[in-house]
Amino acid sequence: MKGLFITGTDTEIGKTCITAALTHKLSQQGLLVTPIKPLAAGQDLVEGVWINEDVQQLHAAQNIGMHPDQVGPLQFRAACAPHIAAALEGRSIERAPLLAAIRTSAALGDFALVEGVGGFRVPLCAGFDTADLAAELALPVLLVVGLRLGCINHALLTAEAIRARGLSLAGWVANTIDAGMPHVADNLAALEAALAAPCWGHVPRLPLPSAAAVAAHLTTPSFSPVLESSL
């Protein structure tokens, strides 16, 4: 399995926007990209169909004919921690079927972008969390850092947890959450010095954060070596 695991410093910091943007950018470079959000919590009923916004965003970014259920194999109605959302529906998250679903979707292309849920360590079932999931997949990790107060601490703790699992931190993306955040340049400099991994881009607040618009702020030279070593 070739690809990347995309994680973040927290929930709601732009993992899906970055994953969609990478799908768009890498597809333009000729790769058959499979964006996968294995667990998605929070659905809306639209014209009689339950949909998850993140899954729909990733599905729209791919161009290899994936079905939404192949992009989001395990979806739940309630917008909360996945193990809680599953319990509310009388369902469970099982390790082996989840991994099998990811690998089945990944096999549809030649480069998988597997997006985690929430931060790096979110419980899924007894003795199994999203960090375990990333370790099972053994993919290089891309860290999305939500730029807001406290992001340096969150980023460094997450990077430490990633490396503690024996995983490679391939790079990180700075995504602007707080448009009024002071000392952005100083925060970016501190992150660059401490993370010891290349920055793949700094995404500002965008009025329409489409996959193409976000992709324009990601720098291809920074992650070309990662792609070459992963293919």
Automatic annotation (TrEMBL):
Q: What Enzyme Commission number(s) apply to this enzyme? A: 6.3.3.3
Single Gene Ontology BP annotation: biotin biosynthetic process
> Does this UniProt record's set of keywords contain ATP-binding?
yes
Location(s) in or outside the cell:
Cytoplasm
- The record's principal subcellular location, in a coarse class, is cytoplasm
- Please list the cofactors this protein needs: Mg(2+)
What keywords sit in the KW lines?
ATP-binding, Biotin biosynthesis, Cytoplasm, Ligase, Magnesium, Metal-binding, Nucleotide-binding
Which residues are listed for Mg(2+) binding in this entry? 16, 54, 115
Catalytic activity entry: (7R,8S)-7,8-diammoniononanoate + CO2 + ATP = (4R,5S)-dethiobiotin + ADP + phosphate + 3 H(+)
Annotated residues that bind ATP are located at 54, 115-118, 175-176, 204-206
Q: Name the catalytic site residues.
A: 37
List the residue ranges forming a coiled coil, or say none. Answer: none
InterPro entries for the chain: DTB_synth_BioD (IPR004472), P-loop_NTPase (IPR027417)
| Pathway of action | Cofactor biosynthesis; biotin biosynthesis; biotin from 7,8-diaminononanoate: step 1/2
Q: Which Gene3D superfamilies match?
A: P-loop containing nucleotide triphosphate hydrolases (3.40.50.300)
Which EC class, in a word? Answer: ligase
Q: What would be one Gene Ontology cellular-component term for the protein?
A: cytosol
A single Pfam family it belongs to is AAA_26
Q: Which SUPFAM superfamilies does the record match to this protein?
A: P-loop containing nucleoside triphosphate hydrolases
Record-level Gene Ontology MF annotations: ATP binding; dethiobiotin synthase activity; magnesium ion binding; protein homodimerization activity
This chain's function reads: Catalyzes a mechanistically unusual reaction, the ATP-dependent insertion of CO2 between the N7 and N8 nitrogen atoms of 7,8-diaminopelargonic acid (DAPA, also called 7,8-diammoniononanoate) to form a ureido ring.
* Assembly description: Homodimer.
Q: What family does the entry list?
A: Belongs to the dethiobiotin synthetase family.
For this entry, the protein name equals: ATP-dependent dethiobiotin synthetase BioD
Q: What organism does the record attribute this protein to?
A: Roseateles oligotrophus
